[in-house]
Amino acid sequence: MNAAGGRRPRQTRATEKKRLILEAAIMLMLDKGLASVTHRQVAHGAGVPVGSIGYYFNSRGELLLRAVEEIGARRQQKAAELIDAAAPASTAVLARDLVEIYSFGDSTRLLGWLGATVDCVRESEDLRLMLCQHRTQKVRDFRTYLEAAGRPEASAELLVMLIDGALVRSAVEGAIGSAAVDTAVEALVRELDG
Description:
Elements: H1 10-32, H2 39-46, H3 50-56, H4 60-85, H5 91-102, H6 110-123, H7 125-148, H8 156-173, H9 178-193
Helix pairs in contact: 1-2, 1-4, 1-6, 2-3, 4-5, 4-7, 5-7, 5-9, 6-7, 7-8, 8-9
């Protein structure tokens, strides 16, 4: 049926189903770890039959690559938004923006991303290489943001590493959610004010 009949075209439904599958894989990866990204769990999270996963993604490996690729695209979109709006601001504002760029705009899942990153490196060489590309782009985005915010002297590479370290510290100390964000922001403020 056409739009007048109330049914969406087949291609639209297929695109939506693929998006739901990808989103379910991302949420599982960030909330429960890479091991939870199984066809059955993804299908359950997406509300689709298990067979749909194999129809849209040739393998679990391909699904994971597309999920990490999507996270990278979201991070770049968030970076572009914050770079466009960047202006000289307090160190605390700069630090929070950098954490938002790092976390693809979902800072509550920072520790989940840390775990997923480690899992991805162990999972496959393709995922490891994709994460290397993401990290290189993240450093570039930090540098561009810092220049736009009037702080070109700050080391983008060092600030990315500070967030990495703050996340490890948060994980070890059991600081989750906003506490992990606060730990990362505090580390950045100390460096930027130092």
